[in-house]
Amino acid sequence: MRFELTPRTNSPTVMRIFASVAAFITAFLIAGFVIWLMGRSPIAAFDVYVLQPLSDPWSLQELLVKATPMALIAIGLSYCFRANLWNIGAEGQYVIGAVLGGWLALRTHGTDAGAWLLPLMVLLGIIGGALWGLIPAFLKTRFGVNEILTSLMLVYVAQLILDYLVRGPWRDPKGFNFPQSVTFDPSATLHPILEGGRVHYGAVFAGIAVLVTVIVLGRTLFGYRLKLTGDAPRAARFAGFNSKATTLAVFAISGGLAGLAGISEVSGQIGQLQPSISPGYGFTAITVAFLGRLNPIGILVASLVVALTFIGGESAQIMLKLPLDLTQAFQGILLLCVLAADAMVSYRIRFVTRGGGR
């Protein structure tokens, strides 16, 4: 006996919402069982992971800080994924955006630059990420090279470039030989939205990206083009949509938003260039994009949920002595549960015997 998945003709919105809720509950139950096997209380873990961060004002600010880069990157990735193109290298585009925007901050360091500096840094960050994203897109459209491999390999190239720069020509001469650049000037720093707060204007960029993407994907021909290209490539070609132009466009958008996240992080949260400027935001954003079902609003909610697991995981590591890797495992479990729930809603399971009966 084997089973087959047959598409459902109609999947009500209520069923999809219920499936999402069921997926989250299932993921928490699985994680609680694993924590119980490790000799810890699942109830205490839930309190540390979820309740305490949501009840502490500082943790709520940190929640927005960590969600900002993931939301920006995931929004960009949704353009690629909707067109059935796989950009796995957002981490590298994030790094190059930070490098190119940070270059201007270092170039003007100590010159008392005016208000023009920060907008130009942000623009350079977007350009850097977009250009890095166009490399796998060009290789795919020109030579047919698989974009998954090239975008992924370029991540390590970008990280090595950053590592070389902060250990070599861009290292702070007064930094006691630590591999880091000088601290950015105030004119090159993305200031907090509220004085004394942690949330900087990168969160505003993320909000704008969500609103623009809602309009682009839902109200424009370009959004329809992406959907048609992803769902029915042959129909897209018959409609006159150029697949190569689409590939270049979505990789440029995806890389640009990742670069924006990178320069926002180093100019707002970190304040300088270091060998490591990301805990893996570019890779985690892939999970965020699919948790949000490639929908801008869903991605915003998913980024907050995943950011909550980061903060809760750090607290659980201290208070419950749980390994930080458990957080990444939970994110993977959550993604699997959501994908499984989507499959159950979109398809019916049909059991088939060897003779062809049901």
TrEMBL record:
Identify the keywords attached in UniProt to this record, alphabetized.
Cell membrane, Membrane, Transmembrane, Transmembrane helix
Q: Which residues cross the membrane?
A: 21-43, 63-81, 93-110, 116-139, 148-166, 199-224, 245-264, 276-292, 299-320, 326-345
First-listed, main subcellular location of the protein, grouped into a coarse class: membrane
Cellular location(s)? Cell membrane
Pfam families assigned to the protein according to its UniProt record, in alphabetical order: BPD_transp_2
Give the bilayer topology: Multi-pass membrane protein
Q: Which InterPro entries match?
A: ABC_transp_permease
Protein name according to UniProt: ABC transporter permease
Q: Which organism is it from?
A: Microvirga terrestris
Q: What is the lineage of its organism?
A: Bacteria, Pseudomonadati, Pseudomonadota, Alphaproteobacteria, Hyphomicrobiales
